Amino acid sequence: MGKRHQTLALVMIAMFAALTAIGAFVKIPLPVVPFTLQIVFVFLAGCLLGSRNGFYSQLVYIGVGLVGLPVFTQGGGITYVLQPTFGYLIGFALAAFVIGFIIERIETPTKKHFIAATIFGLVIIYAVAVPYLYVALNFWLDMKSSWSHVFVVGFLSSIVADFCLAITSALLAERLYKVFQSARNEKFSHVEGENVI
Fold this sequence. Notes:
Elements: H1 2-23, E1 27-28, E2 35-36, H2 38-66, H3 86-104, H4 111-140, H5 147-156, H6 159-196
Antiparallel strand pairs: 1-2
């Protein structure tokens, strides 16, 4: 039972890591912080995979990028931690975990639960990303920037679009949730049948 479930979990983790990477290349170039569709797959990972596996999917994505594969919006490699946008990636992992944690605590999550979870996840992303952006620009990139400037480029320029994506992702997650749950249950029942035989 454990092996089947573990295999399914690994496949889902890898799939959402890949989808997040693909989302990085669907982007609208903006000053300092480009707008991408990565955040959609972060929301879905948390909602559909749960806290642990959603978190792992984003860790895999970040890890693959840090070892050198160009899966981030501006390439890859260990020095990417110095990029001003790296805080968003940290926020992605934390948001996926928290979103999953919220959904896991509800026996039968509904539309309002998914929306609340994704919005809370969005808050976490920006709570990590905006201060990281400020520190990166002012300290190790020596691009002196005020908090107001960072707030505009790191928050105001994308929050409306990201908020809309959070709502859209929540509505999509509500529709996909039962499919993912039934897939897991089918694995369990299939293996339990084998054990009985």
